[in-house]
Amino acid sequence: MDVDALAAAPDAVARRVLGATLRGRGVAGVIVEVEAYGGVPDGPWPDPAAHSYRGPTGRNAVMFGPAGRLYTYRSHGIHVCANVAGGPDGVAAAVLIRAAVITAGVELARERRGLRADAALARGPGNLCAALGITIDDNGVDLFDPDAPIRLELAVPADAVLAGPRVGVSKAVDRPWRFWLPGISAVSAYRRSPRAPAPPEP
DNA sequence: TAAAAGATATCCT
DNA sequence: GGATATCTTTTAG
């Protein structure tokens, strides 16, 4: 497994990133929950919920670049979210890292996050970035460069993976592009976006 | 130049 | 479980 394995469709990239180890600034964790995003309206997987849907902009340019780069963006002003860019160069694909289990540097992670339950240290995209020390300025770093401050170590794909709808999106609400490992307490509880259309009443 | 929306987290009831 | 804080990016006028 190397960076070439990430030059694929968003959902395939998501499955490959799941279970990988993300190292950043003294803290490392195994990724246990991800969401796939990507595509443009005329592409093979149009995804109206993705930042890339309306074409490249200054913010989402990394999504259109080569695989293996870190795409960070700010949400609601304060939170930072981390993505791994996927797809071949020129194709928009990214995997949002939603949760991880800290395997090294727990003390440091606790210090950054304030004292909290271990399972909550890197649960949720914003919290995960805080625990690993990832900031908005890390946008575009090559995760496979040995000298990069943030690195990704791919593992063999997990055999047991669960899939379901993405959290907090108001478009393409029912697309099962969220993937997580079973039996992990750090996986987020599913929350439908308050702006999403009401679910069909059975 | 202005306004709205957003891939959230936290605190309150 | 539900409302709100908070600010950047994008889009419209």
TrEMBL record:
An example GO BP is: base-excision repair
Alphabetized UniProt keyword annotations: DNA damage, DNA repair, Hydrolase
Query: Could you say which EC number(s) this protein's record lists?
Result: 3.2.2.-
Enumerate the InterPro entries for this protein.
Formyl_transferase-like_C_sf, MPG, MPG_sf
Q: Which domain of life is it from?
A: Bacteria
What PANTHER family would the database entry show?
DNA-3-METHYLADENINE GLYCOSYLASE
Q: Which NCBIfam families match?
A: 3mg, PRK00802.1-3
Q: Which family does it belong to?
A: Belongs to the DNA glycosylase MPG family.
Q: What is this protein called?
A: Putative 3-methyladenine DNA glycosylase
**Source organism (scientific name):** Mycolicibacterium fallax
Q: Give the classification, highest ranks.
A: Bacteria, Bacillati, Actinomycetota, Actinomycetes, Mycobacteriales
